[in-house]
Structure formats: structure tokens, C-alpha cells
Amino acid sequence: MSDQEMSVSLPDFAVGAINLASARLGARALYATDQFFAPLSRMLKDDAAVFLPGEYDEHGKWMDGWESRRKRVPGHDWAVIKLAMPGRIRGFDVDTSHFTGNFPPQCSIEGCYLEKGDPDDNSDWQEVLDRTNLKGNSHHYFEMDQETRQKVFTHLRLHIYPDGGIARLRAYGSAYFNWDKVGDGEEVDLAYIFGGTHALHWSDAHFGHPDRMFAPGRGINMGDGWETARRRGPGHDWVIMKLGHPGIIRRVVVDTAHFKGNFPDSCALFGAYLPDQADVFTAEEIAASENWQPILEQTKLSADHIHEFGSDQVRNIGPVTHVRVANYPDGGISRLRLYGVKG
Q1: pLDDT at residue 303 is higher than 90
Q2: Per-residue pLDDT for 8 more than 60?
């Protein structure tokens, strides 16, 4: 979800989920029957759609999303996207923001799973969302049933009837990773987003979503990480994350790349083994996380620096399913790595 959308009330299925159709995470536009007015790739952007009143290009009005031309022949338009990673989908947001007289009246979505490569004429497409009515300039939230939630997809095919524009497509879900391929004693980054790790709750994310900490590689700039607003009152900022697989954390890396005047003064990590915990915490459960077992005691941080903490500082508290990251008092972390073994 975009930073602008984090203040919008989202349905429960989107809480603690990642957007598998996120361009930032690697989702790609593969094919569209028509993209005359606006390219398919814009539909996968992570920021909220904008409207620029006086902006035109050689095809007409500039629109922030995917828009096909008015169809003058039978049929309808459709497009194929590759998800950022294989995943299970909990629900969609089909967003027609700023499309008022040019939105499609209906849409449907299919999905397929491929071990490698992209779909062709022989791919096994399965219906994920039935043909459904849409409105202009609106978010449309569609929750998947339990059977559909268990399926793993790598690609989506979006149909619009008969033509028009979609500002954003969000596919909220969780990454699928075959943990059976990881040996019992093999060290792995338990916080890697492609392994299924995702943020559930946080105190603030004004400048950057917590899930950015779990992305591949180092941050590319100050916007590529979790950053909170300046705290003007008591307390400190925090995020509760769920690991993709229970694990024992042995070493930790906290990277404040690009955060120079706005890095946290210090940080701490706490863990808990809660295999039956729902993704949506109650206020009491969030409060209880302050008393989880410490993994890393409150430790000073530096600007624009890779901080590595080994067994001399990282406590072995046994297997954990959830980790609470505490920033004192506020600021930005670019990447968090939790290296350990399956537990």
C-alpha cells in the first residue's frame, strides 16, 4: 500500500498483507490488448493515483493508471501482469480513482501459477474474481473466499468490460516460499519479504512503509525504508512483524543507509512464539507485545551505517513467530535482516 493510503481505513484482509502487484517489489506489466491513453505499468505504481488537471500528452488527457481507447469493435480489453513474487491472495483493490467518465463498468480477474516463465496459450488460467460491477473514482475491495486464499499464483489477467481505465490494482496477500527447501541448520534471513515476512501493526509510517525494511538489497535512497514522523510527545515508535516461518534468530543487521539526520538514536528487538495469533491484533495484544522477550537490548545506532549484531548481543530466546522492532524515539531504518534457522 502507498504511504498516502496508509491513513485510509482498509478492510481486515489487507491488514498485515503485502501488495503482490507492487512495482516497487518487482511486479511487471507484461501485456495489454490496448494501452493507448495510459500504459499498463502505471497501474502497478505504489503511490496513490494523482490527477493533473492541465496535463496532456500526444494521445490526449494524461491519466495516472492504465487506460485503453474507446472500443469500436466487439470484445473487451484485458491485461496480464506478473506478480512481484509467488503468493496467496486474500483480496483485491480495483481502484478507479480519477476515472469518472472513462472507467470500465465491470471487471473480472483470473490467475495462474507457473514455475518459471510467463503465460502462453496453454497456461491454466483460473477464475479468481467473477465479473463484477465497478463505479468511477472509487476503491473496490473484493475479499477472496477460503478456497481461493489457499491457491498460489504468479500471474494475473485483468479483464475490463468493454474498455476504460483502472488507476491501481492492488493484490493483497502473502508471499509463498517453499520452506521445505531450507535445511534445518541452514542459515537464512527470516525477515526477507519474499519468504513471507510482513508488518502487521505499527505506531507510525509517515514517510515509509515498514515492509520496505524486508526488501532485497540495500535501500536506494531515503525513501526506501521505514521512516516515522518526528515524535513530539513521550514514547517511541515500533512495528510488529510476522516472520514467514518460525525461526531462531542468531544475528541481526540494522541498516540505516541514507538516514543521516533522521536515523533512530537507538533500537531494540523483542520476540514471541505465537503460532495461533491472528494477523489483526487487539489493542490489548499490541500492548502485551511491549513485554515480549528481548532479542536485542536497546542499542545505539549511527547515521547511514550497517550495524551488525552477533551472538554476543543477540539473545537466543528459542523459536519466534513475531518480532517487535522499537525505534527510540523515532526515525528511519532502511533494512532489517534477521539471520537464523528454522525453528
Answers
A1: yes
A2: no
In whole angstroms, what is the distance from residue 214 CA to residue 270 CA? 17
Q: Are 188 and 341 in contact (CB under 8 A)?
A: yes
Structural domain includes residue 180: no
Contacts of 9 (CB under 8 A, 6+ apart): none
**CA distances in angstroms from 83 to 112, 137, 154, 187, listed in the order given:** 10, 25, 5, 27
Q: Which of 193, 192, 107, 115 is CA-nearest to residue 155?
A: 115
Rounded to whole angstroms, how far apart are CA atoms 249 and 309?
Answer: 11
Domain boundary residue, one of 151, 175, 199: 175
Domain that holds residue 242: 185-342
Length of the chain: 343
Kindly state whether residues 168 and 208 are assigned to the same domain: no
Q: Rounded mean pLDDT of the chain?
A: 95
Rounded to an integer, the average pLDDT of 252-267 is 98
